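Dear colleagues,

I hope this message finds you well. In preparation for our joint manuscript, I am sending the Nocturnin (Hippocampus comes) sequence together with its predicted structure, so that both groups work from identical material. I would be grateful if you could confirm receipt.
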Amino acid sequence: METMSYPMGGGATRLYNALAHTLSSSGGSSNRVPLPLTHLDPYQPADTNPDPDFCQEQKGSPSCPLDPAQVLRQCEVALGDEPPRFHRTFIRHSNGNAGAIRVMQWNILAQALGEGLDSFVLCPPEALSWSRRKYLILDEILTYRPHILCLQEVDHYFDTLQPVLARLGYSSRFCPKPWSPCLNVEGNNGPDGCALFFDESHFEFLDCVSLQLSAMMIPTNQVALVMILRCRSTRRCVCVAVTHLKARAGWEWLRSAQGSDLLRQVQNVVQRHSASTSAGSNLHIPLIICGDFNAVPTEEVYCRFVASPLGLDSAYKKLSQDCLTEPQYTTWKIRPTGECCTTLDYIWYSQDTLRVDAVLDLPSEKEIGPNRLPSFSYPSDHLSLVCDFSFKEDG
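The corresponding structure tokens are as follows:
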């Protein structure tokens, strides 16, 4: 396996005025209405409070696109007094069309949960402030510039992530949890949920379905987004899904049921799309399913994905010597109940039609540090997963 260096960028205390005028709505409301889960448009509150750091006066049109490289450089210049970031490298596995589809999976940690309910006992409160974390989150995304971005625990979609990333060329959808725990935190920014972004220069949007996952025909509090995209260069379609399954021990049976429901729903979306087109290439649309599954690799929901007739494999097994073992951790945190170091996050893909060209490695225990995650160096308790895929010629 070839190792390719990919240094991290730095966080920032401000993205200067380059992100000005990204929001046009005003006013605010804490009365949020859940998304009609069969609707294709994202949940949109009646009013959204603009993020003041992104609403400063700037010459030029607010709709003018931003240059990602320039914004990232500005972040790095502003990093000055920040702790160093992790240095991560891409482990290359093939000589295919590297970067044909770059996918990032990341539970970014809901702001309300990070400050209110998650109790990261060794993380300084200042490291959990949104005024710091939002720049670290944007910096992580801009460092790797994924074509497809799958996020969980998003509770600052409308005031920050959607408007900023839209100016960087991303289109997106958002699906909130019906009963988000964020709403129980004083001063919350609305419900958290899943968000799916895609680079409009790389993909065309074809379809999207928002799902409330069920268990034994009963709706649960967990959601998913399933989107059909068409690659502009190859004209081939891909189906992308993002989800966040039920957390905590004792709920293994529920996660298994939710995973089964998601697999069924993804298959339905692909079959419906294939039936609506006469193009033969759409009959075998590759799948990419990202998420925080809250499940270790020995759990039943993981085994269901491995055994699925959809032919899925987990991309991050490519980090192991035999390409058969998941990494030791994708999340590492310390709460009042103790230390948690385990693998919960995955990028599943259709192994018959997609090839894994490269996988971003994970920081070492030394790099993460004794206080674990989140920290001044990293904004979430979950590490981002990034993979480069390409279409197989005979897929």
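For the figure legend, we might mention the following. DSSP finds seven helices and 16 strands in the chain. The radius of gyration is 20 Å.

With kind regards,
E.M.
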